[in-house]
Amino acid sequence: MVSKICCIGAGYVGGPSMAVMADSSPGVDIEVVDVDQQRIDAWNNLNGASLPIYEPGLQQVLDRVRGHNLYFSTDVAGAIRRADMVFLSVNTPTKHRGHGAGAAADLTFIEKAARQIADSAQGATIVVERSTLPVRTADGLRRILDCSTNARFEILSNPEFMAEGTAIDDLQNPDRVLVGGQCDATVNALAGIYANWVPSSRIITTNLWSAELAKLTANAFLAQRISSINAIAGICEATGADVEEVRRAIGADRRIGAEFLKSGPGFGGSCFKKDLLNLIYLAEHYGLDEVARYWRMVLDLNGWSQKRISQMIVKTLFGTLRDKRIAVLGFAFKADTNDTRESPAIGICRDLLHDGASLSIHDPRVDDGAMRSLLSMSDDGLPAVGGFEKAASVETACDGADAVLILTDWHQYKQLDWADLASRMRQPGWVFDARRGTNLAEAESHGLDTWQIGRGGLN
Predict the structure, then answer these.
(1) What Å distances lie between residue 313 and 307, 371, 393, 430, CA to CA?
(2) Is cis: bond before 428, omega within 30 of 0?
(3) For residues 179 and 187, is the Cβ–Cβ distance under 8 A?
(4) Crossing angle of helices 137-145/208-239, nearest 10°?
(5) Tell me, what's the pLDDT at 99?
(6) In what order do the strands lie in the sheet with 70-73?
(7) What's the N-to-C CA distance of the chain in angstroms?
(8) Residues 10-67: tens digit of each pLDDT
(9) Which residue positions in the chain have pLDDT lower than 50?
(10) Is 273 marked active-site?
(11) Coil, strand, or helix at residue 26?
(12) CA-based angle 410:414:415, to the nearest 5?
């Protein structure tokens, strides 16, 4: 029976998922450990620090379990030694150098964690892959763990399927929980923990390799749907069709479904690009070049979705953005999160800055430091020509603006006072809605020209 769990990694996966597990499994003590003292202090809310991530409902869950059966610390070795089960929730970014650079996953942190487990674990220990990993990573883990003289190990794959902005609900009410392994008793041990709050019909057990591949495949399919609908959005704009009407029509087909058919400036977040690159690398490794080209086109289309927005803005604003102010509403890659990883706003804002624009960026959760670290250089590595600032409010962002660009689907942007905002802007003024989330008819009634993604026939 598992009574003590250690989770290595206090990032986006480790923190929320262990908080929900602790909340639903009061008989299990969970220690989340990380070498980053500042991050651990933030999870413990020391010195008034805010949580390292924003996620609706997360604080309420933490208030119930932190200090009772959930603990955050930097005592990595001690937590491993005390644990019956160790979750690996460390980062697996795309490699930037060496063999496989630009596509393969960098497993440096996974290897370091595995070596620490081999050094510190005692007795029978279950090691759970929680991070998204290439297929057959468990083979490498086993070779490292087998060097231990103090413990024996079983390895499971338990990929997370939560999404930023809805992570707590995704964890509390999952569509499915996937547990892959080679030992039935070990698989059942982890499945038994999830059974505390997840119906057995939603707990799927597989072999180890299927579980590792399932996460990459799920993200690839979701990314493909977003790129597909964004491709259709471009056709809609050219022909006078409306992508929302197309979406409703095809989404009603139960074979297709309505989810992930919302057009926008492209997908972002920590998973889709990284996992697509991983899948492409895997296909190339096994000589499946046609498969690799197919999935690379999904990435290429995502890049096109972002680039065409910045190009269209430059063309619309008389071919130049010098001495023009643009109010950018939203910098996170989606609403209800402060996550900016691979956010479409990064590339679009860099392009606008490179063309000389002055950007006033409003986002209710992304701080000024994150914006500055991401926008200090353009994509070609050269300093940006234009400048930017973080606006305290939507109204401040729009003061003197030539255009408003909506890049994140925050709820508050759906209820903008266009009478007030239009009066603050220079004329002629434009509104570019890349999220289809605001009342453009009202904006037009106050003299603003408008563009909306995936809709033809607008001004």
Answers:
(1) 10, 21, 23, 9
(2) yes
(3) yes
(4) 150
(5) 86
(6) 70-73, 29-33, 4-8, 85-88, 123-129, 151-157, 177-181, 203-206
(7) 65
(8) 998 999 999 999 999 999 999 999 999 999 999 998 766 789 999 999 999 999 999 9
(9) 458-459
(10) no
(11) coil
(12) 120
Is 271 labeled as catalytic in the residue annotation? yes
Q: pLDDT at position 459, please? A: 46
Whole-model pTM? 0.90
Query: Token pair for residue 163?
Result: 């999404």
Q: Report H helices in 317-360.
A: 344-354
Q: Which of 31, 160, 164, 237 is catalytic?
A: 160
Superfamily of domain 4-206: NAD(P)-binding Rossmann-like Domain (3.40.50.720)
Catalytic choice (271, 274, 324, 398): 271
Closest CA to 168 of 54, 49, 30: 54
CA distance linking residue 417 with residue 350, whole number of Å: 28
Q: Which ranges of 240-316 does DSSP label H, i.e. alpha helix?
A: 243-251, 272-285, 289-316
Q: Could you count the other beta carbons within 10 Å of the beta carbon of residue 395? A: 15
| Cα gap 337→54, rounded to integer Å | 5
Tell me whether residue 215 is one of the annotated catalytic residues: yes
Structural domain boundaries in the chain:
4-206
Reading the block at residue 395, the tokens are 């109204």
